[in-house]
Design goal:
The complex is a heterodimer. By secondary structure, chain A is mainly beta. Chain A is built from no helices and eleven strands. Classes of the chains: A mainly beta, B mainly beta.
Chain lengths: ~110, ~110
């Protein structure tokens, strides 16, 4: 069964304290690994798409990487405004529907 | 603003009532998706349109749920005879083939009393 698991469920960091979020997946045919940011009460905001193992993408303090079994979202020197829930998902089948993990809620304290 | 829009943003209804939500995708996007999200969980796929054709429905979508996308533009999601278990955030997303990057709207928060 296609499945995606994120860890940890929650993460508290001090401002400037770098860390990584994990997304592990088992899927028969990966059609992209996606990262989204979601603020409370809002829809997910697209961050990155990764398609093949070894691929990396960066945006400001965030860098996403992909292996054959998992993806990492690295956060370098985070700021309080990075506090949010980070969701990963993979594209499934020809429809492109996304299968989401449960998310990691990040809190960055000043 | 050229992003995905949803209306209403919040809906409170009594059990047994019917509700309808609207989604306006990004104008040139030909794929439109509906997802449902409950507290502490990631979004779950409900249904998908390519242009005006509804091509896949999740097993989560019971007979009380119906979705349309007339003329391949906006979409509506109707829930008949609402139940308390229908309380959730209903999210709409759109994409443009061949890209699978989906852009989400702000969601409609449904509360069934």
């Amino acid at each position: 069964e296609d499945q995606v698991t994120q860890s940890p469920e929650a993460l508290r960091l001090q401002e400037g304290e770098s860390s990584s979020l994990n997304c592990s997946y088992t899927v028969s045919g990966l059609r992209g690994l996606f990262w989204y940011r979601q603020d409370p009460g809002k829809g997910p905001e697209f961050l990155f798409t990764l398609y093949s193992a070894g691929e990396e993408k960066e945006k400001e303090r965030l860098k996403a990487t992909l292996t054959k079994k998992e993806s990492f979202l690295h956060i370098t020197a985070p700021k309080p405004e990075d506090s949010a829930t980070y969701l990963c998902a993979f594209g499934s089948g020809n429809t492109g529907k996304l299968i989401f993990g449960q998310g990691t809620t990040l809190q960055v304290k000043p | 603003d050229t992003g995905v829009s949803q209306d209403p943003r919040h809906k409170i209804t009594k059990r047994g009532q019917n509700v309808t939500f609207r989604c306006d995708p990004i104008s040139e996007h030909n794929r439109l998706y509906w997802y449902r999200q409950t507290l502490g969980q990631g979004p779950e796929f409900l249904t998908y349109f390519q242009n005006e054709a509804q091509l896949e429905k999740s097993r989560l979508l019971s007979d009380r749920f119906s979705a349309e996308r007339p003329k391949g533009s906006f979409s509506t999601l109707e829930i008949q005879r609402t139940e308390q278990g229908d309380s959730a955030m209903y999210l709409c997303a759109s994409s443009l083939v061949p890209s699978n990057e989906q852009f989400f709207g702000p969601g409609t928060r449904l509360t069934v009393l």
